Amino acid sequence: MAAQQRKTGLGKGLGALLQEEDIQVSRTSIHNSSGTTKNLETSPAGSINFIQVDQINVNPFQPRTDFDPQALAELADSIKLQGLIQPITVRQISKNEYQLISGERRLRASKLAGIKEIPAYVRTANDQQMLEMALIENIQRENLNAIEVALSFQRMIEECNLKQEELGDRVSKNRSTVTNYLRLLKLPPVIQAAIRDGQLSMGHARALVNVAEIDVQLFIFKEVIEKSLSVRKTEELVRIMQEQSANSDQKNKRKSNPMSFQFQKIEDDLASKFATRVKLNMKSAKGKGAIEIPFDSEDDLSRILELLDW
Fold first, then answer.
1. What CATH code is assigned to 127-186?
2. Tens digits of residue pLDDT in 137-191
3. Of the listed 41, 74, 104, 235, which one is catalytic?
4. Could you report the per-residue pLDDT of 213-256, keeping only the tens digit for each?
5. I need a labelling partner for 190 at 20 to 30 A (CA). Which of 39, 219, 245, 286 fits?
6. Burial class of residue 165 in the structure, from the number of CB atoms within 10 Å of its CB (0-12 exposed, 13-18 middle, 19+ buried)
7. For domain 1-59+68-125, which architecture applies?
8. Any bridge partners for residue 94, and if so which?
């Protein structure tokens, strides 16, 4: 079989979404540029395979050509820690050769992380209708976690060229529900993984997506996990943190120039990397300052030191 089927560890509901069990290999014919026809082993729309990265060719029609090296490095670090949460999408063009449809940034970051094989949705040519039907059927199953549903919604929008209103009609959900699911994919990877693995409910997730600052999201997330906070307690903590943030913003306006967007992004990226609140203190206009990484226990300190390769 050209691509090996395996369990992904993305949650027990993923078997339903990705049709891991009893996937039957089918054969289809494709026509190459010379006009000849060859048979290929393929997987049905909606299935997932682990594929060697050196077997995947980039899409020659990919309009995006520039990739931020720093952003790729950060994504590679995230993949090393959390794994690749969102599979790429490919189509099979020969027995051991695939062409990328979507996910070039994830593919590049996986190579940078030294990953040899990654999960991929394998599609055949002209199967958009079959893919849409398979995704709709699976979205309506009850045993999918919120991240799996969000990924399915995103796939339908990107690969089936649907607007959110059209997607809502397809899956019998209103636009606000679709939007709430898609917003989950903007959360830091560590929080997405917790939702995926059942550590956080959809109610907890809805509270967290309303928090603008990544470091605050991560702080609240740690509080929820460590203290087993209910959804109601989480919403209350979000309200308190937002009030404190608003008061802090008012104080900062009276002080020196606020932190630039560039430094704020660095602070947010560091918070996401270390899964804790990180403070970037700028002490002078010449660029001098300090990075503060708080820890709650010796175990937490060991975790941070491990991330620093200490």
1. 1.10.10.2830
2. 667 666 678 898 898 898 888 888 888 888 888 888 888 899 999 999 999 999 9
3. 104
4. 888 899 999 999 999 999 999 999 999 888 877 766 555 554 54
5. 245
6. exposed
7. Alpha-Beta Complex (3.90)
8. 97
